[in-house]
Amino acid sequence: xxxxxxxxxxxxxxxxxxxxxxxxxxxxxxxxxxxxxxxxxxxxxxxxxxxxxxxxxxxxxxxxxxxxxxxxxxxxxxxxxxxxxxxxxxxxxxxxxxxxxxxxxxxxxxxxxxxxxxxxxxxxxxxxxxxxxxxxxxxxxxxxxxxxxxxxxxxxxxxxxxxxxxxxxxxxxxxxxxxxxxxxxxxxxxxxxxxxxxxxxxxxxxxxxxxxxxxxxxxxxxxxxxxxxxxxxxxxxxxxxxxxxxxxxxxxxxxxxxxxxxxxxxxxxxxxxxxxxxxxxxxxxxxxxxxxxxxxxxxxxxxxxxxxxxxxxxxxxxxxxxxxxxxxxxxxxxxxxxxxxxxxxxxxxxxxxxxxxxxxxxxxxxxxxxxxxxxxxxxxxxxxxxxxxxxxxxxxxxxxxxxxxxxxxxxxxxxxxxxxxxxxxxxxxxxxxxxxxxxxxxxxxxxxxxxxxxxxxxxxxxxxxxxxxxxxxxxxxxxxxxxxxxxxxxxxxxxxxxxxxxxxxxxxxxxxxxxxxxxxxxxxxxxxxxxxxxxxxxxxxxxxxxxxxxxxxxxxxxxxxxxxxxxxxxxxxxxxxxxxxxxxxxxxxxxxxxxxxxxxxxxxxxxxxxxxxxxxxxxxxxxxxxxxxxxxxxxxxxxxxxxxxxxxxxxxxxxxxxxxxxxxxxxxxxxxxxxxxxxxxxxxxxxxxxxxxxxxxxxxxxxxxxxxxxxxxxxxxxxxxxxxxxxxxxxxxxxxxxxxxxxxxxxxxxxxxxxxxxxxxxxxxxxxxxxxxxxxxxxxxxxxxxxxxxxxxxxxxxxxxxxxxxxxxxxxxxxxxxxxxxxxxxxxxxxxxxxxxxxxxxxxxxxxxxxxxxxxxxxxxxxxxxxxxxxxxxxxxxxxxxxxxxxxxxxxxxxxxxxxx
Length: 901
Description:
This is Tetratricopeptide repeat-containing protein. By secondary structure, the protein is an all-alpha fold. The protein contains 42 helices and six strands. The strands form three sheets. It has a two-stranded antiparallel ribbon with strand order 1-2. Strands 3-6 form a two-stranded antiparallel ribbon. Strand 1 and strand 2 form a beta hairpin. The longest helix has 25 residues, at 813-837. The model is unreliable at 1-23, 146-154, 341-383, 385-422 and 521-532 (pLDDT under 50).
């Protein structure tokens, strides 16, 4: 027998491992394209599929009808609505009912019913009066454990034992005997069973059910309410099998009590559902028992579904099982975000040949992860090809074709996915089952599910053909069909051009145009939603289009489908910024581009200045100071880096303080201190620049101001570069200052924030050494752009080259020693870059891990000494007797260690 991946226990493993955030929600990690809740019998809504709660909760409680209210409404000859009946039975006060009985009602609703309502329904109103009197006490006496830590401040302290037992039993018995209507009589019987249950008179409860409930030959709402209480009393008497069977009957027959009955079955008998299966006699009971067994152990649902199909292919609970199975497939096929794996870029310099070679690879030759990846075909279309001129048809289906590219949500859950290497079998078998069932069942639901499974298999034409033939008046079915037609249309489109964008706006605007937020009713609670709104069909389609644009080389449009213009400040890599700017300046935008994409060109002050500042920063990092100056001239109206609610920890106060631009601190353009040309006294990013940095002698360079904006800084560097062409001491010093600023604004420098659109040098992903050979880590689209940090790597050779000029043009040994140390620091940056790209990647499970890791570290150490300590070695061998070297020994422990080797 095949064993599929659909395991509740294993699913919980997925939940605990995929997200680091304490507030993560697995039910937000995929797109709900197939609406589970379109099942017709809404009483089964709690038993649809989710991971976050014990039962499915994404529905309104009012969707599940209460058979007790329906029964009362019928009793009142449907004179009042369901809502009014619920108000009368559950909400209206005891005093109001007593006023009605006295003939002078004050409640507006009771006045509307008229004075004859009590006369007509005297027994019913008298029963409701008694029931409302008892209701506050109708709970079991909870005996607190001495070790209990649960605080019950807001719970009522009333319970059934606070009523006089004999008087209550006598009153209810008298009312039962006096009642003439059988339904009202049975309701008094229900109260007798319930009262005995809650006072722990379990034997009396059993007797009361037999004498006062069963004796009345009715099996409506009151009967099953009483049966529920009987089962509770049986559980109290340790009659597990009997209790379980009666809870099972309540589960079958009740609409609003299925959830509580299911829990009670679990509590009553450890072998609950297997025992029920043995006892089931009728087809209805067997069908329901198969459902409960399949629901409880969702590892292999299809065999149970086959048994249910044989009994009744029109069964509503069979649709519930199908909905749960489809939902599980959605979670595997449609994650809300695809991550590239940590090692996924190893072979990306080679042309991706997975598509053409896949058919030539024998299955037995594939690794486990290759099999998994080949299974996970992505609906979006693919990853961006390294070959710029590939045809659309070739790039259309490349996402996850590369066996080295394993999504994080798979890699982090090896156990989960190792349950079955051939997961695709489940989709195939479910499709076979659905195709068979749709031929027997009269419900269009099965045609819809068949179309959806074909959609998951990327048979968009087959899916569309099925949808076109469905004839139904069910509004929920019609909505699902409409959505699926849109999905098939858009997902099957290989290229998005202007004509297709016009089609999107003409026919599908509702999925892309944002609706105004719905105002909450004043009575609604404004609870905080930790997870945000669940991903929608519109979100999915947005991702599809983002991926299409990405494949087409329209990075700017791809980016703006999921991100704001202002987000570029977090990862301002040049090629993406250029593409976004090209879209911004594009004339004659389509309606789709104007209303859907361009709306994300949010407020960054002056947009032209925003782009110019980014370009100027990049030019500075590349030491192209003339170009930087020309950009900064266009950026003078830059209004500062927008950081809403930004806070930074202040070690002096021990508090987080909100960033406030006071006109003197760095704002992304202005207020850069001349210490940026200085050198480290010690390496401490948390300390003030006055503590960490020391100024050089700027006397010969009056254009270096105490504080500068970026235009002034670029101008100063242009002048220094000219002076640096000189062969004298001043030329040497100019080159040293240029080398300093290039190092100080690198990933290792105190002012590393200046040219990467950041507000300060506090640590974060922006200052990690990126471990990829590629220029861009975004492989499929730019969704969650700020989650993946990427800045183009520093070119430390630029600083080193200026330092070399400075070193060669000075005769001062102290200055030479200082320059060599700065060169050695930049050289360390080159080593860190190399190290990050050449990780050991030794499996911890390898029994020789320690040995292999030691070998790796020795190799890296040897390499460091041979290639990346050139200037340390020179400083040690030629300038160790300088005052500068002695000072460095006291302030740099690393240099001290090296000198003593």
